[in-house]
Amino acid sequence: MSTDPLLRVRDLRVSYPTPAGPAQVVHGVDLDLAPGERVALVGESGSGKSVTARAVLRLDPDARLSGRIELEGVDLLKLPPRRMREIRGGRVGLVFQDPLASLNPVMTIGRQVMQPLLIRGVPRKVARRRAVDLLERLGVRDAEHRADDYPHQFSGGMRQRVVIAIAVIAEPALLIADEPTTALDVRVQARVLELLRELADERGMSILLITHDLGIVAGFAQRAVVMRHGRPVETGTVEQIYTAPRDPYTKALLAAVPRIGGDVTRPLAVIGAAGEEKEGS
Amino acid sequence: MSEPLLQVRDLVKTFGGRPVLAGVSFDVAPGEVLGLVGESGSGKSTTARCVTRLTRPDSGQILLGGRDVLAAGRRELRALRADMQMVFQDPYASLNPRMTVAELIGEPLLVHGLEPDRRRRRERAAELLETVGMTAEHLDRHPRSFSGGQRQRISIARALAVEPRLLICDEPVSSLDVSVQAQVLNLLRDLRERLGLSILFIAHDLAVVYYLCDRVAVMLGGELAEIGTREQIYGDPAHPYTRSLLDAVPVPDPALARQRPSST
Ligand SMILES: Nc1ncnc2c1ncn2[C@@H]1O[C@H](COP(=O)(O)OP(=O)(O)OP(=O)(O)O)[C@@H](O)[C@H]1O
Ligand SMILES: Nc1ncnc2c1ncn2[C@@H]1O[C@H](COP(=O)(O)OP(=O)(O)OP(=O)(O)O)[C@@H](O)[C@H]1O
Ligand SMILES: [Mg+2]
Ligand SMILES: [Mg+2]
Questions:
Q1: Torsion angle, CA of B87/B222/B239/A266, rounded to 10 degrees?
Q2: What is the CATH number assigned to the segment(s) A7-102+172-256?
Q3: Ligand 1 centroid – CA B127 distance (Å)
Q4: Is the ipTM of this complex over 0.90?
Q5: Does the model's pTM come out above 0.95?
Q6: pLDDT one-digit tens code per residue, B144-159
Q7: Which of A67, A221, B193, B253 can bridge A12 by disulfide, Cβ–Cβ 3.0-4.6 Å?
């Protein structure tokens, strides 16, 4: 590859303290993202995708991390907390899996979207204009007025778009988006993904997209990492993974995707403990 | 045709002068699964919240098993709530962070007086967890230590605990991998067949809706653009919005995805 990776993760391990001693949930993740690259992180529920994403920004105070996480050559695991805070919301934007929990319930939507710009000294009026424009581009109707609403006045999918707006408005070098489109209808989803793709192509923003939707991965990502039980089981280009998956779990995952027009009279296939596809019972 | 379990008539709701529901009507028969799909912000969750009386509509009527939901007094409402359970769109916000999983799943059994014995509630919670692909080991943990999909499954187990006649699910499987999703969908179908459970199923994944739902209502701007059988909606949609939705479904094939016009 011609450029140095923007993000380089090596042998990342994460554990949490429990009454029975530390429980390791991520057992060695390697990951590279080039500038402008779009990589999908997919896999089993509970396999460590969100924990990995949060570890990159050292967001869990309880989590014990080891390995190396380099952003633009700097080892994030060695940074003092103050520098780490600057990176969050600065060089790295994050969309949490849980949009409601990451919004401030007593601050207007507009104010929250403007915040990353205000912190960087952008004048208020300009910041507001850019916030409203961005919400419009994300398909929020009548954003000029709706910017004065509070989070509880927004629908689930509208809140999800607000969280995306907050993450990208200050043009981070890296966007980590954890299930960012689960509450969006497929048309709005296409529009949001299109905007993210533009930011990747035109501004060189790298994107790590965590999703269960293998349709989105096919259309959006260039490479994918498939996780199971806290470790990657397969990494490759999207073409490779979809046309010639090597790992049995990846194969089973792709085969289990429900399709419009499929047989609705039989139970859906579930994936067994060894990663093989099983008929549902 | 048997008497519908749920009848919703002409629901109207405005928030601060903004119309959000502009006359929504539909029925759900016993043992039927009705899908509710449509634009983000079109009023799907508001409809669900009106049916469970978490939000009061400005006007309209809601009957569950012939009983008037909007006119129900306190005691009647409690009985109605045992008959209809809801899985919320936001699994984390709807789970009390201070309760353990055993308490969360056992709570409806306690509230509705179905299982006064603590040990038996715990056993029942363990069984329910297993039906959604989790285990008894999870019983003493708190919601914050779970993944998104695990929380979603805890919410589903909790809603099923009282064996409701109507289950209202707002995006219940959106954070699940396809295998766990298949397990939950198989479970819901099984409950429908064995116990005649009716389901109002709100979702954005049109393949999941295709698999599970007998009929589908498509919502746009506070109204139903159309409602019909699975075959009608997917095979011969009447409304241009439905067609545009079906056209925008992402295909799990990188070669096909590249040929498509990128956006709407
Ligand atoms: N704070 C915590 N304490 C203890 N265990 C945790 C904590 N957070 C997560 N876990 C466990 O770590 C594992 C990985 O969780 P993670 O949230 O990364 O899964 P995920 O791959 O994002 O799954 P999903 O697709 O369901 O969101 C899970 O088994 C979860 O229960
Ligand atoms: N408490 C409230 N106060 C003001 N407006 C509200 C309130 N709740 C919902 N709305 C508005 O009502 C409309 C419908 O919201 P609703 O949550 O029902 O949409 P939805 O169809 O569930 O969307 P999504 O698919 O994004 O979850 C939206 O414009 C929303 O902003
Ligand atoms: Mg997750
Ligand atoms: Mg909703």
A1: 10
A2: 3.40.50.300
A3: 21
A4: yes
A5: no
A6: 888 888 888 999 999 9
A7: A67
